[in-house]
């Protein structure tokens, strides 16, 4: 049965010790919510994860944790196709072909490559890191994705994907769907609790970052100790970045406009307000944590989910790869009509 919903695809990094509240509100929940209106393909880009120095045992563990986290948040592997990139060999295969139509100068202009290559803590930049965006283009084109829900930091890679698809199609005949140049609108921009001038990030000290998997008592303590601003009014304002950030968090979690929250907390002190924020975070995350623990306790089940996801992904990827191989003039293997 063909699926009439537009197709989306996104790669979801197997992050350190799980997402923080900024990732959760800005991306993870969004991916989950897209599974109804779209024919969604989500995968863990483990091939991309080894483009910088990494620990093999941690990568394996985090891959499974990322899958468990997405499912704990509500991703339903029956509605969306959830898989691990290395389970689908077509990604690397198409990546090679696309690398052969990518200009060296073109790849050298990718800002994420330049940023990562300049970071001393990541060691010497590798050829794998250089071709990262080309592999990402292969990820997207294999599935004929119409849209790619990613943050603005990835828009240059989506642009490259469009360029490569158009170039391939005009050189070798119509083969790939050219994805739309859309990025996810940035809704909740969650700031660090200790330094609200900065975006919440795991590279900042842990006191300012709420992890989805933090123990509830830890989360509560971090929120109660969040920096607030001079004065005592619960109001969003440029000179009140700490309070504004907490209002943003509460607003996103309770789907209540900031103005309504300001009204609700008029006359309350910062203490009561922070308690309300901590309660809302706990109410949101505790059920996620329970489901997460239950899922991780059953790796055989997660393995089955991923095997099924890889089967479904491969049935699409194989078709696209065969069309691309045929278009570039590879000789089909004897005895088989296709690769
Ligand atoms: N580069 C993306 C990121 O850092 C992850 C990714 C890999 C991806 N392949 C993808 C995202 C394909 C969208 C589509 O977040």
Question: Quick summary of this structure?
Answer:
With about 350 residues, this protein is mainly alpha-helical. It is about 55% helix and about 5% strand.
Question: What are the salient characteristics of this protein?
Answer:
339 residues, mainly alpha, elongated, binds tryptophan
Question: SSE layout and pairings?
Answer:
Blueprint: E1 7-11, H1 21-33, E2 39-44, H2 46-49, H3 56-73, E3 81-84, H4 90-99, H5 104-108, H6 111-118, H7 127-142, H8 155-172, H9 216-224, H10 241-254, H11 258-264, H12 270-296, H13 299-328
Parallel strand pairs: 1-2, 2-3
Helix pairs in contact: 3-12, 4-7, 4-13, 7-8, 9-12, 10-12
Bound molecules: tryptophan.
The site of tryptophan has 12 residues, from strand 1 and helix 7.
Helix content: 40-55%
Would you report the number of β strands?
3
Distance between the termini: 24 Å
* Protein structure class: mainly alpha
Pick out the low-confidence regions. none
Mean pLDDT: 94
Structural account:
The protein is mainly α and 339 residues long. Helix content is 53%, strand content 4%. It has 13 helices and 3 strands. It has a 3-stranded parallel β-sheet, with helices on both faces. The chain is elongated, with a radius of gyration of 22 Å. The site of tryptophan has 12 residues, from strand 1 and helix 7.
């Amino acid at each position: 049965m063909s699926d009439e919903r537009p197709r989306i695809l996104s790669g979801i990094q197997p992050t350190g010790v799980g997402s923080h509240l900024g990732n959760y509100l800005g991306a993870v929940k969004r991916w989950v919510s897209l599974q109804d209106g779209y024919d969604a393909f989500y995968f863990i880009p483990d091939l991309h994860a080894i483009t910088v120095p990494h620990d093999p045992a941690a990568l394996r563990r985090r891959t499974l944790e990322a899958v468990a986290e997405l499912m704990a948040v509500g991703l339903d592997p029956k509605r969306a196709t959830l898989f691990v990139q290395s389970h689908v060999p077509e990604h690397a295969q198409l990546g090679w072909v696309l690398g052969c139509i990518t200009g060296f100068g073109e790849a050298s202009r990718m800002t994420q490559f330049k940023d990562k290559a300049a970071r001393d803590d990541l060691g010497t930049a590798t050829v794998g890191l250089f071709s990262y965006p080309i592999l990402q283009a292969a990820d997207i084109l294999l599935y004929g994705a119409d849209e790619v829900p990613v943050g603005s930091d990835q828009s240059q890679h989506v642009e490259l994907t469009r360029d490569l698809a158009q170039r391939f199609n005009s050189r070798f005949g119509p083969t790939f769907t050219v994805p739309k140049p859309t990025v996810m609108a940035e809704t909740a921009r969650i700031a660090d609790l200790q330094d609200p001038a900065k975006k919440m990030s795991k590279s900042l000290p842990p006191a300012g970052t709420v992890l989805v998997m933090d123990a509830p008592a830890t989360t509560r303590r971090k929120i109660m100790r969040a920096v607030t601003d001079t004065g005592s009014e619960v109001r969003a304002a440029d000179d009140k970045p700490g309070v504004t950030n907490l209002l943003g968090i509460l607003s996103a979690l309770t789907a209540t406009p900031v103005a309504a929250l300001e009204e609700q907390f008029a006359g309350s002190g910062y203490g009561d307000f922070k308690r309300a924020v901590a309660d809302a975070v706990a109410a949101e995350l505790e059920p996620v944590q329970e489901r997460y623990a239950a899922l991780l306790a059953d790796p055989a089940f997660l393995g089955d989910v991923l095997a099924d996801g890889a089967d479904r992904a491969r049935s699409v990827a194989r078709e696209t790869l065969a069309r691309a191989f045929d278009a570039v003039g590879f000789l089909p293997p004897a005895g088989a009509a296709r690769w």
